[in-house]
Automatic annotation (TrEMBL):
<dbReference type="InterPro" id="IPR007730">
    <property type="entry name" value="SPOR-like_dom"/>
</dbReference>
<protein>
    <submittedName>
        <fullName>SPOR domain-containing protein</fullName>
    </submittedName>
</protein>
<dbReference type="InterPro" id="IPR036680">
    <property type="entry name" value="SPOR-like_sf"/>
</dbReference>
<dbReference type="GO" id="GO:0042834">
    <property type="term" value="F:peptidoglycan binding"/>
</dbReference>
<keyword id="KW-0732">Signal</keyword>
<feature type="domain" description="SPOR">
    <location>
        <begin position="57"/>
        <end position="125"/>
    </location>
</feature>
<feature type="signal peptide">
    <location>
        <begin position="1"/>
        <end position="25"/>
    </location>
</feature>
<dbReference type="Pfam" id="PF05036">
    <property type="entry name" value="SPOR"/>
</dbReference>
Amino acid sequence: MRILTPRKKALYTLLLLISACNINAQDQNITVNQDPKFEQLLNEKRKINASISVNDSYKIQIFSGKSDEAKKTLIDFKQEFKNIDGTIIFNTPNYKVMVGNFKSRIEAEKNLVEIKRRYKNVFLIKPSK
């Protein structure tokens, strides 16, 4: 390792300061050319998105527990209730089996009565708003 003399240190420091003064940032002038119809489409999309409610359906939870048991429960459910869709959701530390995608509470409660005959610990999940 070489040790610099005070004279060389001063020279290198001076060169560093001079070169730092000459550094310029990039120009920030950007021109974007876009079709006027793009803004119209974007506004239409915003209107559609505002009218869509993402989580407005009722679901029924039929199981909460370990992964293997959740998979088995979902398979059994799909064999017995072919017209009702189901899914597994992981919510630490449990896997939950949620079934249905009911638009109204009345429809969900009708199916809840049927499902309760087969599964013991079932309950209705309200949509979160």
